[in-house]
Amino acid sequence: MKSVTPVRSLMSVLAHSVVSPPPIWMMRQAGRYLPEYQSVRKRVGSFWAMCMTPEIAAEVTLQPVERFDLDAAILFSDILVVPHALGQPVRFEEGLGPVLGEFRGEETLERDVVIWDQRLAPVYAALRASRSGLDSAKALIGFAGAPWTLAAYMLEGKGSPDQRAAKLFAYRQPEQFGRLLQMLADAVSFHLVRQLEQGADAVQIFDSWAGGLPDAEFERWVITPTVSVVSSVRERCAGARIIGFPRAVTQTQYERYASATGVDCVGIDTATSIAWAAERLGNYGAIQGNLDPIALIAGGKALDRAVERIMTEARLVPHIFNLGHGVLPETPPENVARVVARVRGTA
Ligand code: CP3
């Protein structure tokens, strides 16, 4: 294994090279566990206003990279900017998370890309400002929710443990649901392409609710729309680097996702063995994950052991060090610093 320290080491891994030590960033690395985030949030007042004010979103995007010297920044935004662009009202309630206005049918959603572009303009301005404030050796990651996860939010109106409303709609009205997924695939592709055009080095597709689906539905609701997103992004941005994160799916489904979608890297959740992922998914491209966000809260020996295990088990394949899901608000920032130092062998 050769040791390299290229510019934007994360991009080398996404080009399927083994880099040692691996580049590191963390999902939800900008957020409430950081005092500097809390102070901006207090000043601005709301999460959504932070997302939609470009200088603020860029400032918060850069905070964790400045504090921890991570290898990548992820744009501070939210997956629900896409339903917002399509005209479904989105608001964030304190302590409750996102709440969406009633879904009135796929045919009532906005189809005009000029309007999508206007509604998402603050996100793209935030992306440009983030890129210009970011060290050139660091990668900037853009993102979007996957069609299935977005459809689930749009039909449920909020987060839900089993996506029952979305599944019922999809089972009962498969044609309408298929049209909704296709429209979302178009909007998600548009959003990813715009981010890549304006300075994102790579993009991640978050399919947070991909878990718990029977194989046939996983195929129709996760694989098919993701294939459509990946191919239409690459049609417009040749060579685009794409990370896919189908959270909490079975090993068979992970393997199907890695082989069928054409993403450059698959995100591995906490419950899936990284040793298994290295062996079975490493042939298709890179893997990313899977540190338990709760071990990150716990710290101490348990955290050191967890980091060590991932480093060992993923050492022979292209690997990006990350969590199995997002950083939680209770996380002591010094534990994040500790992980970065352990991964780089400086602590
Ligand atoms: O990772 C990052 O640092 C970049 C920013 C980012 C946020 N949300 C900021 C955020 C990203 C990549 C997301 C993605 C996102 N948003 C997902 C996919 C990843 C996942 O967590 O599964 C989902 C499902 C959402 C929808 C969403 N946004 C929920 C369910 C919530 C409430 C839960 C919570 O943690 O409060 C949000 C709010 C949200 N998005 C916050 C942040 C920093 C908290 C806002 C605050 O109260 O300050």
Brief characterization of the structure:
This protein has 347 residues and is α/β, with parallel strands linked by helices.
What is the average per-residue confidence, as pLDDT, rounded to a whole number?
Answer: 96
Query: What is the string of helix and strand elements?
Result: HHHHEHEEHEHHHEHEHEHEHHEH
Number of helices: 15
- Rg, Cα atoms, Å: 19 Å
Helix percentage: 40-55%
Structural class: alpha/beta
The number of strands is 9
Describe the model.
The chain is an alpha/beta fold. It has a single domain (6-344), classed as TIM Barrel (Alpha-Beta Barrel), CATH 3.20.20.210. Helices cover 52% and strands 13% of the residues. The protein has 15 helices and nine strands. The protein has helices spanning 9-14, 35-44, 47-52, 54-68, 81-85, 113-133, 147-156, 164-172, 174-197, 215-236, 251-261, 274-281, 293-298, 300-313, 333-344, and strands spanning 72-74, 90-93, 97-100, 139-145, 202-207, 242-246, 265-268, 286-291, 319-323. The strands form two sheets. Strands 1-4-5-6-7-8-9 form a seven-stranded parallel β-sheet. Strand 6, helix 11 (251-261) and strand 7 (265-268) form a beta-alpha-beta unit. It is globular. Mean pLDDT is 96; it is low at 1-6. Bound molecules: coproporphyrinogen III. Residues 27-32, 41, 47, 74, 76-80, 92, 97-98, 143, 159, 206, 208, 326 line the site of coproporphyrinogen III (CP3).
